[in-house]
Design brief:
- This protein has 345 residues and is α/β, with parallel strands linked by helices.
- Helix content is 32%, strand content 16%.
- It is built from ten helices and twelve strands.
- It has a ten-stranded mixed sheet with strand order 7-6-5-4-3-2-1-8-9-10, with helices on one face.
- A hairpin with a 4-residue loop joins strand 11 and strand 12.
- Helix 2 packs parallel to helix 3 and helix 4 packs across helix 6.
Length: 345
């Protein structure tokens, strides 16, 4: 791959920042819509999910929209296959995030018949670590079996494994690369563990600065090595040296400008990982038409609200814009994790 100079990166990141500020914040484009499905009864019924999908079809160009079923485990939603069939018949391109444990050959074939295009399966370490994380003694083997069934069909546009790296599994990533690639998966998405007010984690699991550097080095060195692409997740501005080195494009938090989500109670949010704070809930599909919310709300995500405190005078703010919304500390009004001082000065 050709080396991109920091000067070129600066010009391209500046162009992206201009596009974000002058275009996207005024005319956002919905590309990704997440629907979190409950595993227990919630205030939303199947008919309400169907009515919402019909609304979206009526109000948006769904040929450019990726619908993703998410939540604790979409396949545990009792009406999952009926809802997926409805989405497929409406013409949605749809995918899901899953732990993979419920996927056997029959389920994989059924997903294919219902038009599933993409799927992301979570693997968080080698067998012992993954099972401990899931608190389920057979989770790893069932997940790996599910992945193999998905790959074996060879009909899905994208089968991806996602891994959250912490201090328990960072020593296993080289071995994991071979194991995952041997399943036939051709895309591995890696993120570092981080604490947010929505999902706090034990500080003892957080990577040190040196471990984060080690992780980035691993991704950069193996990113395009056959047979599997490796990429870093969507979190964090990584600084002028690492931007474009560990993922396909430059950092841009998509929340509220490209991405929206619906939680299990129908609340309209900007991203599945963003805290469920009152000021971040934009409406509810039981009472609001989503199109109106998308066009008229999301103001906090489309302004320079976060240009304050530590970010106010940062020379990287234009390219970073306060980093990832899902890791922003809304109590302290500062980034919950900033890579400045870790990956760049």
């Amino acid at each position: 791959m050709a080396i991109i100079t920091e000067r070129t990166k600066h010009k391209q990141m500046s162009a992206l920042a201009d596009y974000r500020d002058n275009i996207l914040r005024h005319t956002p484009v919905l590309h990704h819509l997440f629907i979190e499905l409950p595993v227990r009864p919630s205030s939303l019924g199947l008919d309400e999910y169907k009515a919402f999908l019909m609304q979206v079809k009526e109000d948006f160009d769904i040929s450019h929209l990726n619908l993703c079923f998410a939540g604790a485990e979409p396949l545990r939603y009792p009406s999952f296959f009926e809802l997926a069939d409805y989405a497929h018949n409406l013409g949605f391109m749809w995918g899901m995030t899953t732990n993979g444990t419920l996927i056997d050959s029959h389920v994989a074939r059924r997903l294919a018949d219902l038009g599933m295009s993409t799927v992301s399966v979570r693997i968080d370490g080698l067998e012992k670590t993954h099972n401990f994380f899931r608190q389920y003694s057979n989770a790893y083997e069932r997940t790996m079996s599910g992945i193999r069934e998905l790959v074996l069909l060879d009909v899905f546009k994208h089968v991806q494994v996602t891994t959250v790296v912490d201090r328990r599994n960072i020593g296993d990533i080289k071995r994991m690369r071979k194991i995952i690639a041997d399943t036939g998966v051709r895309s591995w998405r890696i993120m570092n563990i981080e604490s947010t007010c929505y999902a706090p984690v034990d500080k003892k699991l957080m990577l040190t600065g040196d471990e984060i550097k080690r992780l980035m080095h691993f991704i950069r060195e193996n990113r395009h090595e056959p047979p599997m692409e490796i990429t870093y997740g969507c979190s964090h501005f990584l600084g002028p040296k690492l931007e474009r080195e560990v993922r396909q494009w430059y950092f841009l938090c998509n929340a509220g400008i490209y991405t929206a989500s619906i939680d299990t109670e129908g609340n309209i949010l900007a991203c599945p990982d963003i805290p469920r704070r009152p000021e971040l809930i934009q409406g509810n599909i039981k009472t609001d038409r989503f199109k109106n919310v998308w066009e008229e709300e999301y103001k906090i995500f489309r302004t320079d609200y976060r240009k304050q405190g530590k970010c106010a005078d940062c020379k990287y703010y234009r390219h970073c814009a306060g980093d990832s919304f899902h890791t922003w500390d809304f109590d302290k009004n500062e980034p919950g994790m900033c890579m400045k001082g870790i990956l760049f000065k």
